[in-house]
Amino acid sequence: MKYLGDFAENQTLGFYWEHFDAAGGSAPRTTAGSMYVQKMGHATSTTGLSDLSGGEEGFSRVNLVTTDAFYAPGYDYSIMLLGTVIDGETINTILAHFSIENRTNETVKTLLAAAQAILEADTEIDLTTDPTQATLNYKTKGTSSVILKKNLVKPDGNPVTSEDDRIAAEENVEL
């Protein structure tokens, strides 16, 4: 049994699984059996599931498209195989486990969502200086919200104390 990973919603998964005879050698499946996906040990579905047993002896490929509503974030899934016959023996097994957005910490999810929102928003930055406080303010265009404030210093590292110092500091700012 394989753990395939924790996937984002609406992905296509694929993996190979091996089958052997009693002596351990590669063997074909003489009866395919039935394959399905089980959600959290309860509901089952065959939607999006493909058993791609090619002509290769000893292994088969499974593809799964998780765009159906059955495959929801926050759940664990198992791919089950029942009634396949290999080397005269009937096999029932769990081929693989996976999850859909069920292993990521909630804080990380929140931060990723916030970062995505920032990337999708108007990200032009308005760089303005505040001469009274000797700081450089990073603002999103059209807002008064300061995203980041950077204290200005002269190229020699001393604090800004005059308008001329502020201009020199602005030219020397490393973002």
Any idea what the radius of gyration is?
A: 29 Å
Largest sheet: 6 strands, mixed
Number of domains: 2
Give me the number of helical elements: 2
> Class of the largest domain in CATH?
Mainly Beta
Task: Specify the helix fraction band.
Answer: 10-25%
Q: Would you give the CATH topology of the largest domain?
A: Immunoglobulin-like
Q: Name the CATH architecture of the largest domain.
A: Sandwich
Q: Average pLDDT value?
A: 78
Low-confidence stretches: none
Distance from N terminus to C terminus (CA atoms, Å) equals 50 Å
Shape: elongated
Structural category: mainly beta
- List the helices and strands in order: EEEEEEEEEHEEEH
- Beta-strand portion reads 35-45%
Number of strands: 12
What does this structure look like?
The structure is a single chain. The chain has 175 residues and is mainly beta. It folds into two domains: 2-100, Immunoglobulin-like; 121-172, no CATH class. Helix content is 14%, strand content 45%. Strands 1, 3, 4, 5, 8 and 9 form a six-stranded mixed sheet that branches. Strands 2-7-6 form a three-stranded antiparallel sheet, with no helix packed on it. The longest helix is centred in the middle third of the chain and has 15 residues, at 106-120.
